[in-house]
Design a protein that fits this description.
- Helices cover 10% and strands 31% of the residues.
- By secondary structure, the protein is mainly beta.
- The strands form three sheets. It has a seven-stranded mixed beta sheet, covered by helices on one side. A six-stranded antiparallel beta sheet has the order 6-11-8-9-14-13, with no helix packed on it.
- Mean pLDDT is 82; it is low at 7-42 and 162-170.
Amino acid sequence: MTIEDLGSLGTIRRSSGEALVGTDRGIKKKKSRKIRVRKSLVYSVDWNLQKVFDVCLHVFKGPGTVPSSQDVTNLCRILDRMDPEDVGLSRSLGFFQAKAQVEGTPRVTTATIYKCHNFEMCIFLLPTNALIPLHNHPEMTVFSKLLIGKMHIKAYDWAATDQETDSTSTSLDKCRLAKLKANKVFSAPSDASVLYPTSGGNIHEFRALSPCAFLDIIGPPYSKDDNRDCSFYKETEHEIPSEMEEFGCYRYLEEIDPPEESEMDGIEYRGPQIAVSASS
């Protein structure tokens, strides 16, 4: 199944399942189901997508590095000009119509445009009510661009305080204090957003309020071998220290096993292509 096939289906049927893109945790193979498809379209190189790729080659310098403020500005400027058509999507596709129905529990679909040691470019497609549960991006900088739809985003960063845990309470042994950075609805078209290893909402969740599509550029990609595995969290009801309340909204987060919603359906990317040189 390819991205353009979504436009020919009144319903989306599940293909092989996998966990949050790039992570090694929670990967479970699902029994394949029949999918109605139509002949794939042939795309040439898209200028905007190619420009994003070319800039990424300069911006992402490998694990342990964070893009400079000027590089962040340059990449965001290009991403802000991107349209759904730059990755082979259109608001007129059946998947994005308000009356489109999804069988069973809504699942997220993902397609990888490009991946190397330094960064990964991928698309996420969310039916209405689909959830990407609360998860982190260890040692990563992530650029996100909402292309189609409306979604609610909640994001946290770990609290910069010595009182992240309460040593007098064993119930907090697996919890850590986090500060709320975002809790709002975003609608396309919107400007690109950026999160950093320790700021910008590194721990976040997405819930689709309508059929959505967004582009993520993750640098460096998830890698269990390099200790950049994806962790999942849940909010707890533990009481927040009173001295922290005046500085903003805080919650204790507890790490959990990968939830069912973290499983995604992977499809082949067959949209506009990028030209990759031998030295890339």
